[in-house]
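Before the break, one more example. Copy the sequence into your notebook; we will annotate it together after we see the structure.
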Amino acid sequence: MVVALFPGQGSQFVGMGKALYEQFQKAREVFEESEDAVHVNIKKLCFDGPHADLTLTKNTQPCLLTVSVAAFRVAEAELGIKPDCVVGHSLGEYSALVVAKSISLSTAVRWVRERGQAMQEAVPLGEGAMAAVLGLEDEEVQKLCQEAQEDTTQALVDRELSIPTLVRPANYNAPGQVVIAGSKNAVARACEILKEKWKRGKSIPLEVSAPFHCELMQPAQTEMAKIFEQTQEKPLTPLCPYVPNLTARITQEKEVIIEFLTQQITKPVLWRESIEKLCEKGYDRFIEFGPGQVLQGLTKRIAKNLNFNPTVMSCSDPDSLKGLSICKN
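Here is what the structure looks like once it is written out:
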């Protein structure tokens, strides 16, 4: 059974999607539909950048969604690939729902453009941070965050910030890989504690514009709730099951989609649990559609930890498309 995976923010790069656009009409149609929906030159941002413009959250999100959906639709048209389940990482959940025909591409692009803008504005630039914590168990990362938050609150080192002092697990990505997010001093303190007190593990600061998937994104969640309420188009029943980041539960319910997309903004991404659930249910072919191979690597790592050996591939350009023939329906 085939699972279509869709990446989130951080997988983008200048030049993504260009070869697909040049060689396939299906890809060109996706780009044109996205641009018509938000009146943004998505082709220029994806193909030429500059990097600083592409990495602005309000631009990154519609660009990533466009390239991911384009990659899938080319594979669908050229090879007849149809997923038995879809799952996306953070922003990628929107791509997954578009592919499952629950949400139209034009609506999803408008939503993620607004989502990116709201998330960018939720926390003043430079006051939030994220870091990847490697080598610790999930429970250990939770304890690390708690200690860091207590230390920074007691020291009042965040008194100059206009946001609350906090740090939380934001992405449970794979065994031994959890991303944390919060106020910059609390995240920095967590990294210091890891280096000072733990005999294993390390932290890697992430180059992001905001602390995603924690309570500091509450203003963005509130804004998106208003946007969802005002949108006339409501999600349809997905043509295949999908796995929400919020619950890591395989479902085909349409009634929960808006609620899950709303809550997802401030809640951690349960990626590891999502892939574990799919492996346990016997899904044995995973294809990442979109730029980069982040999810391909995470999926292999999660499956290996379960002593499961699925086929894991990616599709981001014409060359990688050729290798997908083994996943034809």
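The longest strand covers residues 167-174. The radius of gyration is 19 Å. Try to locate both features in your own notes.
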